[in-house]
Amino acid sequence: MRYLWIKVVRAAGCVVFAAACSSASAAAMQRVGAFEIDVTEVTIGEFSKFVAATGVVTKAERDGGGHVYEAGWSKKSGWHWRAPYGRPGVAREPVAHITYAEAEAYCQWAGKRLPADAEWVEAAYTERRASPPSLFVSGRTYTYPTGDTPQGANCLSGCGTARVVAHGAKLLRGRGHAEAGTTAAGVNGLYDMGANLWEWTNAGPGAEKRTRGGSWWYGPDQMRADYIADKPGDFTAIYIGFRCARDAR
Fold first, then answer.
1. Is 156 left (phi over 0), alpha (psi -120 to 50) or beta?
2. Considering Cα of 123, then 124, then 127, then 132, what sign does the dihedral take?
3. Which of 53, 81, 141, 228 could potentially form a cystine with 19 if both were Cys, beta carbons 3.0 to 4.6 Å apart?
4. CA-CA distance, 158 to 65, in Å (whole number)?
5. H-type helices in 110-249, by residue range?
6. CB neighbours of 13 closer than 8 A, spacing ≥ 6?
7. How much is the pTM?
8. Nearest CA to 162 among 190, 133, 195, 193?
9. What does each C-alpha distance from 137 to 41, 142, 147, 181, 188 come to in angstroms?
10. Mean pLDDT in consecutive groups of 10 residues from the start of the chain, 249 residues
11. 12 lies in a domain?
């Protein structure tokens, strides 16, 4: 069965989802050359404004829950964007259990777009600030989004210990995600480009869409620029989120 839950109307340079264009103030963004990108992953609080304005019901909600990998992929009843681990999340948590199309729809509603894969990579690894803090050098490309080492990210191991949300779920691997903006700021002053949640980018072959950066379920290797992970665009999981970009203003 195919669901058609989002009616898209293009008008006056914006995208309307059964409602007016977003009037919400933009989340903090960082300029990186010719584009700008969200400083943090999109949060539950930000996504809730989109849902309130549009009435969108996400795939994970319609399906009865999103997924986590245990002995294979397991669907978790009641796990969706409002309740990432089966109980209500807080506004500053990164939004998870979101498909590629839902992420794209949110970004369009907010007057932005999903970042191109090349944009995401540039923002994550190459410092473009003219006068960055002492840990970073303008123009230098780093191994990890956190810099020369993965320290400060929320990954499975090898990144230090991040403070994660008190979700109460029994996880067979990892500790879960951290609230947006609470780990160490990395290249270009961005948070969680490495680990925490995989992030959708505007790339991938056919129905497969590209995710970048790794997650709390993985170690540092998945945080590197040469690690590419394509996933079904309609897949929902506890460790897939996103952030938005736009052309520089």
1. alpha
2. positive
3. 53
4. 31
5. 117-125
6. none
7. 0.89
8. 195
9. 24, 10, 10, 21, 10
10. 32 34 59 98 98 98 97 95 97 98 98 98 98 97 98 97 93 96 97 98 94 98 97 97 97
11. no
Number of domains, the chain: 1
In a domain, 46, yes or no: yes
The strand order across the sheet containing 35-38 reads 29-32, 35-38, 245-247
Identify the CATH number of the domain in which residue 50 sits: 3.90.1580.10
Query: Residue for token digits 């948590």?
Result: 93
Is residue 249 in some structural domain?
yes
Boundaries of domain holding 128: 29-249
The answer to whether position 128 is within a domain reads: yes
Q: What would the two tokens of residue 95 be?
A: 């939004």
How far apart CA 195 and CA 197 sit, in angstroms, is 6
